[in-house]
Amino acid sequence: MSTRDTLRTFIVDTFFVDDFADDDSFLRKGLIDSTGMMELVAFIETEFHIKLDDKELVPENLDSLSRVVAFVDRKQSLAKAS
Amino acid sequence: MKPAIPSREEALQLARASLQMVRTEVFPRAERMVAVARARWMFRAFRMGRDVAAYGPVSARNDGHAELGDKLTFLGGMLPTSVVCYEHARLLVGNETQFNYGASVEAWESVQIGARCMFASFVRVSDRDGQRIAPIIIEDDVWVAHGAILLPGVRIGARSVVSAGSIVSQDVPPDSLAMGNPARSMSLDLVARDATGT
């Protein structure tokens, strides 16, 4: 499964939201609350074996599915490079 | 001409209006006066600003240098709030900060709390945990929710929020939400609409 599908499945199963676009803001659409965001962060860390720094927990990285996918890809390629 | 005698309805209405006035205007003011008087007595060993109010029991002790700002509020409830400043320690609390019942602030070396902070019930702030002593700094406009524990040496940035039940062992940057044990911080912009006006 691609990163996008893995994340989408997790979000749909965990937060009981069925219909959302890749660019929908989690916050503004009310899809994920603060506790949910912590769950998402924990999921990303265990699923993709990357460690997120607290400074990276900002809307630019995590506030929509496409942003999360881009962020995870970037982190993974950084991890591979080092 | 004789003034008209008010009808039964009018009299009732007048009575109701004055009762309402007593309830909304007089009672809260009286309660506040009692709270301010109580705070003055309880914090008699503290350096204290104006209008500090204690609406419930507070166990306060100052053997060091403790300074409270103006307009602090200590709410009452199931358990007394406790504010303790030990010998040679420094405890500063900024203006308009509020404490709910059961909160506990303990200074062994230095605890600084900013202005307009909110401490929910059963929050524990202590700069000593049995192993080490390190100063705690809480900046302005911080909200610490129910049951959170701040460990020695942490600094909570301005306008940040500490979630209920969190155990904070690391510094929290400004405009963040700290959550979990040990607490992790995320930007408030990520989880709260218009949190920082951006």
From TrEMBL, chain A:
Domain spans labelled Carrier: 1-76
Protein name (record): Carrier domain-containing protein
TrEMBL record, chain B:
Residue ranges of the TM segments: none
Coiled coil: none
Keyword Hydrolase appears in the UniProt entry: no
Record-linked InterPro entries: Hexapep (IPR001451), Hexapeptide_acetyltransf (IPR051159), Trimer_LpxA-like_sf (IPR011004)
One of the record's GO molecular function terms: acyltransferase activity
Keyword Magnesium recorded: no
Keyword list, A-Z: Acyltransferase, Transferase
Protein name per the record: Acyltransferase
Organism, scientific name: Corallococcus aberystwythensis
